[in-house]
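Posting this for the archive.
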Amino acid sequence: MASASLKKIGGGVAGWLRRGRDVGVLVAIVLAFVIGYALRGGGDGVAPDAQPQQWYTCSMHPEVRMPNKDDLCPYCPMTLVPASTAGADTDTDADAELGPRQIKLSAAAQALIDVETTPVVRRLVHHQIHMVGQVEYDETRLVYITAYVGGRLDRLFVDYAGIAVRAGDHLAEIYSPKLIVAQEELIEARRAVDRLGSDATGVMAEGAGVMLDAARERLRLLGLSDAQIEAAENENVIGDHVTLHTPTGGVVIAKNARQGSYVAEGDRIYTIADLSQVWVILEAYESDLPWLRYGQTVSFRTEAFGDQTFEGTIAFIDPTLDAQRRTVRVRVNVNNEAGDLRSGMFVRGRVSAAVASAGRVIAEELAGKWISPMHPEIVRDEPGDCPVCGMALVRAEELGYATATQGGGEAPLVIPDTAVLRTGQRGVVYVKVSGEADAVFEGREVQLGPRGDGFFVVTAGLDEGDLVVTRGNFQIDSALQLQGQGQASMMNPHGGPSGAVHAHHGMPQQAGPGSPQRTTTRPSTTQPSTTQPMDHGGHDEQ
């Protein structure tokens, strides 16, 4: 009986233990569910008391996210900078007041990127334009020696090119039967006047005189000198050769006929160049044109004369651009009385210019002056006509110059060239608009003028006294991109989500927290510290 009681008691204990085990399992399941839900925070993904993870990114590639600040960007590789921390405390009220192109930086952040600012000021911008070119003949000083009458070249006194001649020197003799006929007409006209004598009536004497003058002029047009005409008229000496003389001094640069050859009336026999003045043809790039004006002084050097400097005046700027070379021809008038410069010499030219407001070249030495529009070396204090071409003189301001006395000579607004971030046709600067410790910087698009002396002329977008960032501006622009809240920046001028800045084929792409990695196939959610290479073959993974 005792044995049966013990068995009954043992069975009850075993049943109680089985029921307790089942209840324990149920309780464990419930506790696991509750704890798991609590750890998940109702789907928020971050426990309320968890510390936010600090991520580091690249200024050039803001899509990179890495947990270790000592890592380098897998693309550049640049040193990583702290990225915005999810869940970190932020001054939302202050941030809400920032515009789409503004960013606030603490004193520590400014020191980290070494921010420097410079005020916008007014000053003249000086620039030197360097050009290359060569010496050429002055086309206005070329003389063609032609045959006044058709015939045979019996003698060439100048029988090769390169000989220097003076005005009046004889060059060649031409035999022509036409001269004999013209001289006989002169002799007959002279005899007719002599026969009439003093007893002739006024009408007859006047007619004979007209005939005589016409015969003389005909011989003069055929190239005979006054001495030859006088000899034929008074001594009845008829010559059958005409001698060609040079009307100007210079150098014979071309001989177009040979002795014994026949020439027709008007054929070119010689070309003579007056080298007392020459042209220097320089080539200027498009970017140099705002600095160049008619009448500017150009200094240049040649290989032949080393450090010796020559000077000339810009007389013409070609209105067309060479489509192949992308340059514009600039013609310079140069005095060459010494004869040092020779056609074909290569030269290196330089123009110094200063730009005033509205992009006009300033020239105080031309204030109140009048210039010839065809000959820039003609400068007068009063209006009048050019003594060379007879054209009316014009004011210097009409040729694109600015002078303080006539207006337009005000110094332009300028900023250091390091303040400008260039993206094609756009220029972006960052302006410090408020604060010192927690300063606010604003990005602005500006319109730029000429560049010189390390400065840009600003035509729109800034005011005098504005503080522009000259160091650290690229990092500020990158910070705007890193904020990821649609701020406008240099690379994202209109704001809005910018996504990845670059796509590098074959480079590893770093995933950010909660962000899918980039591959050429499907997105996959991975841990932030893992990397996954992009497909090298350009085909989907199978």
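The longest helix spans residues 2-40. Helices lie at 2-40, 92-96, 107-113, 177-196, 202-221, 226-235, 473-483.
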